[in-house]
Amino acid sequence: MKKLLVLAVVAMMFFAAGCRERTVYIDGPAVDSLMDSLTITAEPGDTSIRFVIQGIPDSLPPGFNGVNIYLDTTDISADSGQNIESEPIHTFISDGEHTHTTLTNGQVYYYAGRADLTEDTVSTLGFGGRFYPRPWGEGSYLGYNPGQDSLDSAQCLFFNRETGDATQNPYTHTDGDLYFELEGTQIVMKPKDTTGAAGVASSGYGEDKWLDTLTQQAPEKYETSVPLELGKIYHFKTHDAYYGKLMINTVDTLNLEVKIIYAFQTADSVKNY
Asked: What is the pLDDT of residue 181?
């Protein structure tokens, strides 16, 4: 009789253990805190988007399986992962980066990062944004001094409409969009061709806003000249309605050299970059 009682107790223990295994526990406050503390970088490129995530701990909270990244051409910023029709393009389970390619320049895309929770409970908790793929690059370009040289000797910055690459051509060359000129003790940026409402404009923002939506859309008004300031972001529009921006990394007045980072939208007449 005692033997049967022991077997019954063991059976009950196995039954109880099985119930505990099927019980789903999600540490909601810990997941909330984690998602809120993540550092996210979303950097659009040429037909691509690069995500960098920092702040995921080595030991994940109970019920948390990582961060799903979703991508769509419709606004998914308010949707939970379960309501987003597309599959996640990547799941981060630790700090790292992921680049998604084969996108279309000039097409608006929306991204969302959502907490991937146990039993497919993908929450609305997370982050999101909007972007437009476009080429970008950096380089060093020369200006000219009107007090010493003629305008024909100046160099013009030209953005390739298909690749987005920036090159310098002589001012007399057919292809030219912008040039840098010394005015007094300051270098200014000017459009070569001002037809089609082409011009340049200062964003008023510094380099910390390079990937911010505040600097990813063309302004309403352009000027025929704008003075350059180190670390600032500037917009430009070409005579044939292509748009871009550039950030000033170095201004060497003595050698008339300007180093920049640029982004150029190769989609015709798309005012986002």
From this structure: 97
Mean model confidence pLDDT for the chain: 90
* Alpha-carbon dihedral angle through residues 184, 189, 195, 197, given to the nearest 10 degrees: -110
Please give the helix or strand (H or E) that residue 226 lies within, else none: strand 226-227
Residue pLDDT, tens place only, 112-150: 999 998 876 666 779 999 999 999 999 999 999 999 999
Task: Map residue 22 onto helix, strand or coil.
Answer: helix
Q: Are 111 and 49 in contact (CB under 8 A)?
A: yes
Going by C-alpha positions, the residue among 78, 75, 159, 147 that lies closest to residue 109 is: 75
Within 10 angstroms of residue 155's Cβ, the number of other Cβ atoms is 19
pLDDT computed for residue 33 by the predictor: 93
Please tell me the distance from the alpha carbon of residue 37 to that of residue 95, in angstroms, as a whole number: 13
Task: Determine the 3-state secondary structure of 214 from DSSP.
Answer: helix
Closest-CA residue to 128 (of 217, 28, 213) = 213
pTM to 2 decimal places:
0.86
Q: What angle do CA 234, 235, 241 make, to 5 degrees?
A: 160
Residue 60, amino acid: L
Q: What's the token pair of residue 188?
A: 């200014």
Q: Cα dihedral sign for 154, 146, 218, 40?
A: positive
Give kind and range of the element (H or E) at residue 45: strand 39-45
